[in-house]
Every structure is written in structure tokens, then in C-alpha cells.
Amino acid sequence: NAGVTQTPKFRILKIGQSMTLQCTQDMNHNYMYWYRQDPGMGLKLIYYSVGAGITDKGEVPNGYNVSRSTTEDFPLRLELAAPSQTSVYFCASSYARGQETQYFGPGTRLLVL
Amino acid sequence: QKEVEQNSGPLSVPEGAIASLNCTYSDRGSQSFFWYRQYSGKSPELIMSIYSNGDKEDGRFTAQLNKASQYVSLLIRDSQPSDSATYLCAVMDFGNEKLTFGTGTRLTIIP
Fold first, then answer.
1. Does B101 sit within 8 Å of A48, measured CB to CB?
2. d(CA B29, CA A98)
3. Is A48 within 8 Å of B98 when comparing Cβ atoms?
4. According to the model, what pLDDT value does residue A35 have?
5. Residue A2 pLDDT > 60, yes or no?
6. Residues in contact with A71: Cβ distance below 8 Å, sequence separation at least 6, in sequence order
7. Beta bridge partners of A24
8. Do B46 and A101 count as a contact with CB atoms less than 8 A apart?
9. What is the pLDDT of residue A97?
């Protein structure tokens, strides 16, 4: 089991460029999440999904889009990169809601210049 | 807006002593409480979860929950240098799929 994998590990973007952060889990988890973590701060939820074809906004969704066509994959799209999107992005998954552990991927460090 | 508050630290504790980490939350409807450990440059990993008032022990770790006072704490006994990390408190409402995280407390264990 690879768990939750994320690519790329690190990326530098110019303002206005777009990119997709990839997230894949092989644990057959229904729930998947995208967080961002700014230096010295906690995690902020961007988007989440409770199953294939179902997504919903989190606390800080502006500037991002997601899709969930399969149980395994949950890509995060940045359409017009801005310096405010410089952050570390974590993908996480869990089997079900509530008391279930969320498993985190290793993160993607994004720098927008 | 739901809030989870933690002292950002840094909290310095001598090796072998007890480290005490605290967290308060604003939403009385919160039902599930989690402590995550995050080493520098790494992703968070779950170390404790607690759902009922009282204490829950797991090895050197004890989580304490007081819903009336809206706080949850984590005690680390016999602190080791490997415990040096940032500890994130997270809270989830009943029937809600989302976690709300605090900003974390940076803990340093001094040999």
C-alpha cells in the first residue's frame, strides 16, 4: 500500500500560470480532502469530496477547482496562479466521516513568483 | 466561524519531563477531537483521538477532554527528543466530514 501519494513534490509557477496538483490513494477511501498550510499556520480546507462525482467547498476555495472522477484520484487545479497561493498543499483521505483517521500525503510545496 | 485555539509556543521541556499541550474550541457542537504530530517539512500524522469526556491513554500519550469547558489537552510523559515537533489540534462536528485545525504548538524537548 502506497497510501496517499502527491505529485509534484515542489513546483515554481509564474503569476498567471496554471497547474494541477495530483493526489492518488490506494486505500479505497471514500473521503478525500485538499488542505493548504501557510508557514507557522494550521491547515485550511480548500475542497473535499465524499465520493466519486461529489465535491464541495471548504474554507478557502477561491482560486482553485477540483474534480473526482474516480475513487482513487482527486486532482486540485490552480487556474491563474497568484503569490497568495504560495503554500504547502496536502491531500488527505479517510474511509468514512466522523471518527475516522485522515491519512495525509507527503505534500506539494508551491512557490508562485 | 468555528475556531480552534492553540498556544503557538515554542514550548521547551526537559527530556524526561511531562509536556502539556492545550487546545480550546469555540463550537459546542464539536464531537470528535484529534491530535496530530507534524515534524518539520513532513505531513501531519494522527497520534491521538478522543470523543468522550475524560482521559484516554496510549503509551506515553494521554488526551484529556472537557466538553463543558471546551478544551482538549495532550500530555506527553517521559518526553524524548524525538517528540520535538509541532502538535496540531483538530476538531470535527457530529455528522460533518470536515476537520478544523488549530495553528499548532511547536514543542522542543531539551536533552
1. no
2. 13
3. yes
4. 97
5. yes
6. A28, A29, A30, A51, A52
7. A5, A73
8. yes
9. 63
pLDDT band at B9 (very low <50, low <70, confident <90, very high): confident
Grid coordinates belonging to B81:
527528543
Beta-strand pair B105-110/B11-14:
parallel
pLDDT digits (tens, 9 = 90+) for A12-43: 999 999 999 999 999 999 999 999 999 878 89
Please tell me the distance from the alpha carbon of residue B24 to that of residue B67, in angstroms, as a whole number: 10
pLDDT grade for A98, boundaries at 50, 70 and 90:
low
Find out whether A48 and A36 touch, Cβ atoms under 8 Å. no
Q: How far apart are CA B79 and CA B61, in angstroms?
A: 10
- The answer to whether A91 faces chain B, any CB pair under 8 Å, is no
Q: Which of B49, B98, B101 sits opposite A42 (nearest CB)?
A: B101
Output the nine-digit C-alpha cell for A69: 472522477
